[in-house]
Amino acid sequence: GGGAPSSAAAAAAAALGAAAPALADNELAARYGGGLDASLIDTSCFKPDGACGAAAQSCLRTDDCRRGMTCTAKCLGDNACITGCFAKYGNAPMDDLLECSIERHECIKVAILPPGPDKASDAPMPPLTPVQNFNTKSLEGSWYKVMGYNNRYDCFDCQKNSFKVAGKDKLDVDVEFQMPRPGRNGEASAYPLRLSEKLVFDSKQAPDSVLSQKRRHARTEGHMFGLTFWENWSVIGENSKDEPEFKFVHYSGKTSQNTYEGAFVYAREPVLPAAAKQHVYQLARQAGWSPSEFCAVRNGADVCDAPAVSTDTLTAQQRGLFVGGAAAAEVDEAGFSSDRQKGSLLPKWLGTAVDEVASYAEDPHVTERWVFSQQKKMGD
């Protein structure tokens, strides 16, 4: 789970500009297409002695945080585009700045939804009635997500979720996944992520449990990209006794900025077992979905054992992989050609300057298209 931050990230990026002396207000307005309401931002927060001054300075000193915030700002609130920016540039200082400025100190007033989970009786109805008398014990242990419905949230690589008991009607969930990132020679590399969620099952003794059990089994809370999310969680189908184990899960979620929904299938092995496919596809069709359009999550060793690239070791050329064509040609003439001359390296300051120009020139939608092009469909 975890909806990517949208307007929040764009506003934080603009606010970061206020902390950087090189950017004047009119440049910000020009860069963000006039779509920024300055009254939503308390710029004093981002000054060195402000509540988020330390986080802002740390971001400004981190190349990929600065570039990542620029990338998200240029997405103008487009969630898929922002997901691409996090895949390419995501890093801890970026998460810290978003958490500090949006959740901890509300320097950016983009919250449009009240924080906290939905009540069971208010949860949106899932497309199929949750499994009756669901046995929570059957979730314990490790599962792979093998197919996903929402390509923005359910289809990242190497998804392993582990459940363990954390008290009555509670499970701790350890979530591992990877976002694809361009590697040293243009090949796909990995940005590994790990988060913890708490799954709290609705009590069957609650007065409205008969009705609420038609809406969800549980609620979850987690933290991703610096922002908190809350989800309603339902198992809408599972294996019969003679089939390999699987759980078909639907969720509806929210951050304080947006709502989202998705669905996925858990299996005990990295791919959907052939003997479970017919039942899983039947459930998807009953829910009104086209199962062949679901993504097949890439959990194989070829993807999951790929090196996780530290972004500061990427050369200017790899960082410029997604620069729009014309800008790439100019940048190439300006500096990349010397990367190819034997024994000739760009001085560090010039390489950084070239990178900086490239990141301002890049079209973030090209990154987005590349990230989503790495996904593959289940097919028939």
Task: Write a structural description.
The protein has 13 helices and ten strands. The chain starts with 6 loop residues before the first helix and ends with a strand. The longest helix is centred in the last third of the chain and has 15 residues, at 325-339. A hairpin with an 8-residue loop joins strand 1 (141-148) and strand 2. With 380 residues, the protein is an alpha+beta fold. An eight-stranded antiparallel beta barrel has the order 1-2-3-4-5-6-7-8.
Helix and strand layout, with pairings?
Layout: H1 7-19, H2 25-31, H3 53-61, H4 63-74, H5 79-89, H6 92-104, E1 141-148, E2 157-165, E3 170-182, E4 188-201, H7 209-212, E5 218-224, E6 227-238, E7 246-254, E8 259-267, H8 274-286, E9 295-296, H9 301-304, H10 316-319, H11 325-339, H12 348-361, H13 364-373, E10 376-377
Antiparallel strand pairs: 1-2, 1-8, 1-9, 2-3, 3-4, 4-5, 5-6, 6-7, 7-8, 9-10
The description of the largest β-sheet is:
8 strands, antiparallel, barrel
Number of strands: 10
Radius of gyration: 22 Å
Structural class: alpha+beta
Strand order of the largest sheet: 1-2-3-4-5-6-7-8
Number of helices: 13
- β-sheet strand percentage: 15-25%
Distance separating the two termini:
26 Å
Q: What general form does the structure show?
A: globular
Mean pLDDT reading: 78
Helix content class: 25-40%
Please give the oligomerization state of what you see.
Answer: single chain
Q: How do the SSEs run, as a string of H and E?
A: HHHHHHEEEEHEEEEHEHHHHHE
